Amino acid sequence: MAESFPSTIAANILTEIDFLTSSDSGLSSRIRKEIMKAKEILFKGKAVLMKAEAQQLHNCELQDGLEKLSELLYDAEDLLDELKCEVLAKQVGKLNIVKYNLKIKVTRKILDEKIDNIRSISIAVKDPDTKLVSSGENVMTHPFVGTPQDFGRDTDEENIIKLLMKPNKEAERVSVIPIVGLGGIGKTTLAKLVYDDKRIDEHFKLKMWVSVPEDFDMIKIMKEAYTSATGKDQSELGVVELEDCLLNELADKKFLLVLDDVWNENYDRWNKLKQLFTQEANGSKIVVTTRSSQVASITGTVDSYLLEGLSPGDCMSLFVKFAFGDETDKAESEFIGIGKEIVEKCGGVPLVLKTLGALLYKNTDPEEWKLIRDSVKWEPEKDRDNILSALKLSYAHLPSHLRRCLAYCSLFPRNTCFNSDYMICNWMAHGFLKFPNENEDLEDVGLRYLKKLFSRCFFQDIEDRGYFFTFKMHNLIYDLVEKMAQRNYKTVDLRILLDDVNCRQLSFLGNARHFSFLGIANGNKKVPSISNNLRTIIMQSLQSQRVAESFVSKWISNFKCLWLLCLSGLQFKELPDSVAALKHLRFLDLSWNSDLEKLYDTICKLLRLQTLKLRGCSALKNLPRNIQKMISLRHLELTIQWERLPPIGAECFKSLQYLHLYKCKNLESLREGMESLTTIRTLILQGCDSLTTLPDNVKLLETLEKQVISSCPKLNLKMDLQGEDLILTLKVFMIYELKELEDLPQLILQGSANTLEYIRIEECHKLTELPAWLASLTALQKLEIVSCSGLSSLPPGMEKLTALRELKIQKSPPLSESCRRKPLNILNLESHLDPEVASSSRDNE
Prior knowledge:
By secondary structure, the chain is of the alpha/beta class. It has five domains: 1-133; 154-306, P-loop containing nucleotide triphosphate hydrolases (Rossmann fold), CATH 3.40.50; 312-395; 399-486, Arc Repressor Mutant, subunit A (Orthogonal Bundle), CATH 1.10.10; 488-641, Ribonuclease Inhibitor (Leucine-rich repeat, LRR (right-handed beta-alpha superhelix), Alpha-Beta Horseshoe), CATH 3.80.10. It is 36% helix and 13% strand. Strands 9-10-11-13-15-16-17-18-19-20-21-22-23-24-25 form a 15-stranded parallel β-sheet, covered by helices on one side. Strands 2-3-4-1-5 form a five-stranded parallel β-sheet, sandwiched between helices. Strands 6-8-7 form a three-stranded antiparallel β-sheet. Helix 1 (6-21) packs antiparallel against helix 2 and helix 16 crosses helix 20 (475-484). It is globular.
């Protein structure tokens, strides 16, 4: 059964409506009165909608009513958003007052009728038999978010390692070991334990991890294998070049390749991939994790390793860890007793144990524990149904705004490695981010939502990259979310749309507003005849593909209600002028288009645009001169042929929170206009080959919290404080591959002494010492030094860093004994001082 979330759409409308009803809007009193009447209806109806949404999983009539109401609310939101665009563009005097007044009046009356209808149906529906359903913000953050939980897999780990150490059979270049088991049983967790074992590092010269796409696309697999092997960006490599580079990495190396979550049962496709990895291999191993015994029989060269459920004792340990966190010793016997009964119904599946444990985290009502216990049923012959049913319990107890954020993730393929910044910008574009706390930006709200979903185990493989998170969704969670989201979120494979007949067959897509399109239909193919009220179009090209401007123009012209448009990876020279008609657009992704040469001033009419992604647009010469009119822009990623940052006016970029300058190879100076970035919180400089210094006016960026600088070969960061009494707010400072770096920027770092929590320095070989003033960074919690061959000691006074909790020095000369002993004996550190330990992989740019 699929869900609709009209209450969250209504909340969006109520957020915007105050502006339109104020006299400052310039709208006529007639229009403002009609909008006020609509506001009253929505305000009174919010409680009705929230109750109905909690009941909809149990009543089809209610679901249908909520879906129809959602459609009306979407249209109302578009109408009011159009009005706001006219106000922002100062076009109020040109409005057709009669037309808008009539539209609002008709919408208001229908809205009133539909909410009354929902109310009458809801009254007759029994409320969900649980107190855990919430529309608020009481989902608690769990202490073990992102922490691997490997209970009870020691024996399995040893068994797999023995198989990997065992010599291959004669004439067998590569041995393939399948790990087979039920979804959620822990196959990936086991593979990771093995992959990270030091014995594996010693036995294999090269390791690669690939999350296999469901369609077993060879190009995607090669890209991920290459990135895993080298840590290098592969986005700009062609197919032939990619294969050559990968083979060069494999040459004369005994490797371990993990292919995680394989579904392909076609022997020919598997054989083609296997041939690629056996051309140079000698004694190498491939581990395949899969739910399918058929996949195992096709791929395996040895008997499958069948992974069973956890033992009762390990099940209980895992559940208790997630249900009680660090306070297991305070758990009352009553809760432990109910917990044992819940555990007995979980079939030994870790995913279910963690999810239900996290659902009950810090819940002190025994009746609610019993409700969960009584809701879980386990029939041995229906393993997958049992698991989905248990996961659905946790899903149903999320507030609707978090379920809506989860539903959106179903637009992306299985095994997608999500980037927190990217996903939050998507959510922000659609107005999903509500309930801000005091002094909290939308980006903060998004991160808070994300951490709550982490807490409830809806995402896994969570990695803190310092200035963003990466994470994935377990396949069973994906199955559940995809099913619940199917009314509004659809994925369509354009490669099958060969003619008008197939296009007409898309009628089953109904009134969905959010679409992800796989593959690319060229300019001669028809645009699918689906609703012209789409909110989302995400083009997921399988590789960089050249398309005609007419193709882009058709899609823009057909769907003028878009709030988000992603054309990443498509190659075209000009963005059509028709983009100006997308008044509602909040998110525009044109990244990795190496043909795009110019953006015209028409793009500056997108007054609601929050996110503009132009990373990898290497032919782009300039931004439009009227860019300052884009007053809502918060997130900008840019590759451009500038030699210097142009002067930035007071009104330009006044909302900008995030700026990423990527491979701006001609950029020599950032001086002009830097002080005007008064709201900037994250600044990333990457691959700026000509940049030699940072300007002193960077000290004026009083809101800057995260600064990342990488692959700028001429950049030195010597910036003395010179007695200035600065109070900056930097929290994260990360630098990579700065060949000329000899000094750290005292101006920035010591100016942030009371806020700076994390420093990472990697591959800065000319850095021979850390400054004495480092000991004044009293808020510093984490210091990482990786692959800095010239650095062999820490400065005196490190014992003053009382907040320091983690010191990591890897692939660098060993510290002198005095430097090693003093800080580590005084401070309670989690230390990583072995220079032979492999450093963690660089951020996946």
